[in-house]
Amino acid sequence: MCCIVPWCVKEIDLRLDYLEDTLPALLFTCHSLLTLTLEAKCFQGSKIEVPSDVCLGNLKALYLTSLVFFGDSINRLISNCHVLEDLAFDECSVANAREINIQIPSLKSLYLDFFFSIGDSNYVVVINAPNLVYFRYDSVIVKGYNLSNMKSLQKAEIYIWFDSSNYETSAIHLFQGICNVRSLRLTIHEVIPLTSRFPILHNLIEFEFFGIRIFWERNLACGVSTLCA
Predict the structure, then answer these.
(1) Is 228 helix (H, G, I), strand (E, B) or coil?
(2) Percent of the chain, pLDDT > 70?
(3) N or C: more exposed end of the chain, with fewer CB within 10 A?
């Protein structure tokens, strides 16, 4: 695929039905770029190749849809976007990754929507975003979560399901990471008896739950009891 990226461009919206070739390296080294939207339908076996010299130092918004990242390519991309404020992975997938590492002080909005094949959830999600205001997570529960410095979080939307009952503790760690949230929309479609106590959400003033009632009664009611105080 051939592509010319002018150095003065500030916004790119690239949508491809099928991605059979690697994306041009210039796409990931455009210093003037402020907003990048990239959508591709990848057939089985294709991959997104992120160059080692990726540098999007002025990028404020990154929207990725239907992309497949292999190995450490997803972290290489994120770690070189130093001033991001809006980051979205919509129906993306990762393979052969040990962790997804998002540590961006400027980040205000984060949307993670990942789909995985069975067995591909054996990794850790790391988030360090002290200025994050909005967080949406739509995914199977993975091996682990390390969420820190999320004291600015105002609204969270969590849509989760369980690929393995071995990850019950991981789910608790996810909720512990967003315990300062003020508005929470939670969707859980399975009855998984949590082995650890659901954290109390002291700042919560708005809560919506969609799922099986018995899961709410057994695991969640005590955590959002402040709404009834």
Answers:
(1) helix
(2) 75
(3) C
